[in-house]
Fold this protein.
Amino acid sequence: MSADLENKSLYDYDVSDVSHLMGENIDAVIVVDPSIDAYKTIVRRGMFEKFLKDSGIYHDLILDLWFHFNDSNEKVSGDYQIFADNTGVFKSKYSRRLKLFLENEEKPHLVQLTVYPFDNAQKYIFILDEFVDSESLEESLTSKKITAVQGSYLFSMYIDLVQDTTSSINVAEISNDVVNYNLKYSDWRMMIVNMIWPEDQEQFLRRTDPEYLKKNFTPGRTSSYDCMMRNLEGNYIWVKLIFSRAQTHNEEDYRFVFMVQDNHENSMEILSTLQKYEEMAIKDPLTGVFNHGEIELQFNNALSFCQKNEAPASVMILDLDHFKAVNDNYGHSIGDKTLKHFAKILMDFSVENGALVGRWGGEEFIIVCRGKSGAEAQAMAEELREKVAADQFPDICQITCSIGVTELKKEDSFLDAFNRIDKALYESKGNGRNKVTLY
């Protein structure tokens, strides 16, 4: 600052002095023309000497200023960058704080941005100033408090369905502050639907439709539902979408608060629990293969498949030979171990051959073979019989199995088909065991 300006009386300062002082102290001044998607840097000092170019594309400048994660310089995924064009439109003065990162720096620079639109032209002046250390510390602590309050809410905004507008938009992972988006609600819906899991998009469009919201929400009512949505990193996560209609005194007001809550960890835990209960409902607790009820269901499904399609299907029933002697001679603990080992052989073989296996009861197991004729299933059964006979079972060394096989017919009932494999099994046992019989 010149000595003349420093020594002036307070009442002698004028606009030119203020302009001169600001020109000497402001860190960065940018002139923007959105109509040609361009900007020009007029002043840049300090960090902005590295951050700003002499001139460039306005869209890219918006991405650099807004569309990176709040705590890093990592850019958000390309899907969300489509909102950049709506972010850089200003109808009046605008001010906010930003966290900006320089390349190869881990600590952000806290910056105050002020935007001044030209009165008669669609151009803007951007003024940016970096905070000093004491202010930066205060801002950092404030941000931590805000982040703690926001918790797991990733996104929020205010909606006016009558005016078809959005306002007070906050994307927590980008900034703790509200972002100025010039975006209609109808446009927002059609942009954000692409971030929803494809199978959930129809439900999203239905639940966010203005007429649906008007019809189903009385003033003060809140409703939510879960779906999968792509986050700013481009990964799908479980979220809770929340709509709440504002309580106003005018029944014709249709204003809503919309929020997106990160529900991924909780949803994955619930899904894991449901999967465990599902497995408990369909799996045999001792051997881990399908239980009686589930393999019977798969048996019936194979019958339906055979009746509706030209493709063949077959089933086989297997029984361990002389299993009672294992329990009598070695005890039930060894008997259980033998059953588990037998089931493991059947499971591995079934997976390799695209078949399904379940425990029918005791030492009997059923294998369902879609797409296999009786002859093909018989060949599979012979291979499996040899595999069991050659295996070394824990504690008992070797054991064999007998197998009955049948090809399903279109006119079969479940009982018809089961009686055939049951009869084939007993024929295998009656012929000396360790045999395969096709009926």
